[in-house]
Amino acid sequence: MLGSIRRWLGAAASARDGWGGLTSWAADHGYTFRGVRRSDGFVIDGRLGATPWRLEWGASQRVYVTGNELRIRAELGVLPDLQTLVLNRVLQEAMEKDVFNQYVEGVQTRIDTHTPPEMRWLVMFPQLSDAELKELGNRWAAVSNLKTWLERWLDGPLANMLEQVPGGPADPLVLMVSRGRLVLRTGLTDPDPASLDRWLVLFECALREALRVCSDFADAHGQSTRPSLWSPSVMAAEDIEATTH
User: Fold this and answer.
1) Could you give the dihedral angle defined by the CA atoms of residues 38, 42, 43 and 46, in that order, rounded to the nearest 10 degrees?
2) Sign of CA dihedral 25, 228, 220, 131
3) pLDDT band at 14 (very low <50, low <70, confident <90, very high)
4) What pLDDT is stored for residue 38 in this prediction?
5) Are the CB atoms for 183 and 72 separated by under 8 Å?
6) pLDDT of 182-240, one tens digit each?
7) Sign of the CA dihedral running 164, 215, 53, 47
8) How far apart are the C-alpha atoms of 107 and 231, rounded to whole Å?
9) How far apart are CA 103 and CA 113, in angstroms?
10) N or C: which end of the chain has fewer CB within 10 A?
11) Alpha-carbon gap, residue 234 to 236, rounded angstroms
């Protein structure tokens, strides 16, 4: 009874803030929704099986996303040194041009830590060839410090999902694995339930496949495959402005 009252009060408060439709959608799916103080955004917590994920919508944290940004992330719990990036071709070409302009024509001799990891990785790590990407090569690019992991991640359901991603070829989309965490970033002007559903389907497919491949690699190297303990209470809702860099 008390829990129902709390959910009703939370939904009523969110409805007054303009999030009524999203709170109902989140409740129907068993997710936890909350707005973010001092910011026009929100946080939704859910889980895929035993693995929690967090969805955030708010001001963009990347220059390549104009307007508001959707971020979804989850802890993989293994292979903390793995660094992998999948992004659309148009964004890859724009980033590589920026790297050239900043660090070649600008006569800088190194890429500093202020440069987003997405840009650094494009020049640091091996890239999958068109032949290795197969059908994905027309629209997507991918790099990793562990190409065998990346190839296995893209070999199966995730490749099929990427071929069906909504939006045009110039719409920014990044899937990256860093420090044991999977992150999706994309631009999203209107965070309606239908749009969130579509992106969550892609993210959960990427997460499911990442957990599968991580488990195979961790077992092969004698590492624990137990997911790290991560609960919504670890990060406050206000942390929407301090997502993974």
Assistant:
1) 160
2) positive
3) very low
4) 66
5) yes
6) 999 999 999 999 999 999 999 999 999 999 998 887 666 655 444 333 333 333 333 43
7) positive
8) 45
9) 13
10) N
11) 7
Q: Rounded to the nearest 5°, which phi and psi values hold at 235?
A: -125, 125
Paired tokens of 96: 């590589």
In the sheet with 42-48, reading across from the earlier edge strand, the strands are 32-35, 42-48, 51-59, 68-75, 181-187, 173-178, 84-88, 140-144
Residue 181 tokens, joined: 């965490």
Residues 191/21, Cβ–Cβ less than 8 Å: no
Q: Kindly list the distances between the CA atom of residue 159 and the CA atoms of 87, 97, 134, 163, in Å, as whole numbers in the listed order.
A: 12, 26, 9, 6
- Contact criterion met (CB below 8 Å) for 146 and 197: no
Q: What's the token pair of residue 217?
A: 């690699």
For the chain, how long is the longest CA-to-CA vector? 66
CA angle at residue 204 from 224 to 21, to 5 degrees? 135
Kindly report whether the global pTM for this prediction surpasses the value 0.85.
no
List alpha helices for the chain, DSSP H.
2-16, 20-29, 89-100, 117-124, 130-133, 147-153, 157-163, 193-220
Dist. CA 202–CA 87, nearest whole Å:
13
Are residues 186 and 65 in contact, defined by beta-carbon separation less than 8 angstroms?
yes
What would the pLDDT profile of 126-162 be if each residue is shown by its tens digit?
999 999 999 999 999 999 999 999 999 999 899 999 9
